[in-house]
Write a structure and sequence with these properties.
Strand 6 and strand 7 form a beta hairpin. Strands 3-2-1-4-5-11-10 form a 7-stranded mixed sheet, sandwiched between helices. Strands 6-7-8-9 form a 4-stranded antiparallel sheet, with helices on one face. With about 260 residues, it is an alpha/beta fold. It folds into 2 domains: about 180 residues, Rossmann fold; about 60 residues. Helix content is about 25%, strand content about 35%.
């Protein structure tokens, strides 16, 4: 079983980067699902709590699991700044989404913001969906999203540094952090692309610090996902091409699924 990315560097910058990402609009979608479920909720790949904490603030019990200790350390720091009422709604576990098991079921299991794209083999992909299914009540819902691959762009700009976003750290607003993205390689057969995140910190216009972390993601086609659902005993309840619930068609930029157990 191959190792997963561990976010040793990325964890330091994660909250700042994604608070600055203007096109990240998934939170209302997952909040709405959590409120309708009334909880408890299981979030697989909870990271630093970007989705988990807003759900807990709504008074909904949520259990989070993540394999990355650096990300969970940031989550625990974030939790320390929350009220006791919020902290009491949260349980956090360190675990691998392919093998993790709790002795309980949930009406809603969610895998937001693409942890499924860190599953690089069919065996791992099916194992992750089986983990989600194992924690669903008989009438429960699994929600997750992956990006719709842009095949015309996959082979472009390999080796180029592309600026993505910038922000000032809350701890020191006099500094500016810029994140760059460099695509390094494409594995056409296994549908994986490798890349590097570059974090450069500036003060008074001067570069004072740089850190990098290698990363990779797989990408899915729609028939590939439908086959995986059958392997995991799951069936689509709804599918969308955006978080505004537009159709999953040729205009889609996301593939968003609500799944239930196939036998229900």
């Amino acid at each position: 079983m191959p190792a997963l990315d561990t976010y040793h560097v990325i964890a330091k910058y994660y909250d700042g980067a994604y608070s600055a990402k203007q096109d990240l609009v998934d939170l209302p979608f997952y909040l709405d699902l959590a409120e309708h479920s009334r909880g408890p909720v299981l979030e697989i790949g909870c990271g630093t709590g970007r989705v988990l904490l807003p759900i807990a603030r709504k008074g909904i019990e949520i259990c989070g699991v993540d394999h990355s200790r650096p990300m969970l350390e940031v989550l625990n720091q974030n939790l320390a700044h929350e009220s006791q009422e919020v902290r009491e709604k949260v349980t956090v576990h360190e675990g691998d989404m392919r093998t993790f098991r709790l002795n309980r079921k949930f009406p809603l299991v969610m895998i937001p913001f693409r942890p499924m794209q860190h599953m690089f083999t069919v065996e791992d992909q099916a194992a992750a969906l089986n983990t989600a299914s194992a924690h669903l009540t008989d009438s429960g819902t699994l929600a997750f999203d992956v990006f719709y691959p842009k095949f015309d762009m996959i082979w472009t700009k390999v080796g180029e540094e592309i600026p993505e976003m910038e922000w000032s750290p809350a701890s020191d607003p006099t500094k500016l952090v810029r994140r760059f993205f460099r695509k390094d390689a494409i594995d056409k057969i296994n549908q994986i692309f490798s890349f590097t995140f570059i974090f450069r910190t500036y003060h008074a216009g001067n570069l004072i610090h740089e850190e990098t972390e290698a990363f990779k993601l797989c990408y899915y086609t729609y028939p590939h996902l439908r086959a995986l659902f059958q392997l995991a005993g799951l069936k689509p309840v709804a599918e969308y091409g955006s978080f505004a619930k537009t159709p999953l068609d040729n205009t889609a930029e996301q593939m968003i699924f609500l799944l239930g157990k196939a036998h229900r």
